[in-house]
Amino acid sequence: MTNVIADLALEAEAAAWLSFRFVAALDREASSEAERLLGRIGAPIAKYWVCKRVSAVVVEALECHGGNGFIEDHLMARLYREAPLNGIWEGTGNVICLDVLRSMQREPNCVPALLDELRLAQGVDRRYDAALTAIEADLVGLSRQEGQARRLVERLALIMSASLLLRHAPEAVADAFMATRIEGGFAGHFGDLPPTIDGGHVARRAIPA
Length: 209
Hints:
Number of strands: 0
Helix content: over 70%
Order of helices and strands: HHHHHHHHHH
Low-confidence stretches: none
Oligomer: single chain
Shape: globular
Mean pLDDT: 92
Distance between the termini: 21 Å
Strand content: under 5%
């Protein structure tokens, strides 16, 4: 259970960094062309990924509460019922991913702006560097393939999250994210932190101050 809660906390922290970074870009777009371009491509990336992951997070959290989490008197019941609405109200997954491709095609400078942001974490972690090299190559080939839009956007969301955690989060949190989301593939389920990660330390960060 510690491993599961730690993984949920890791997901929430990464999502917060991803969302706030692109919100900041949108706030600065009037004074910075680089930030405007980053916000143009980054906002739909964050929107797609967070909306897709919230349902998985809520289902796992509900399971942690057990039967109490499912009754209507519990907050989790409402969160469970309403979680899928995010991916509908904010635009369906396909529409949002196509918006990412559209931003690349209509404003090609979005891609260099995104890569400049990702390169800020280059050299910090070998796993990250390998993932960055791979995504740089795939951005060229996949940006015009609509059928691969979800795959591309998912990878961009993960590597952007990794970049932010490597730059701003404690080392243990960034290492856990790299081990579970970047290195060796990502299955999408929770409780998969390897034994080398101190799950208790990561989980305790989720305790309200």
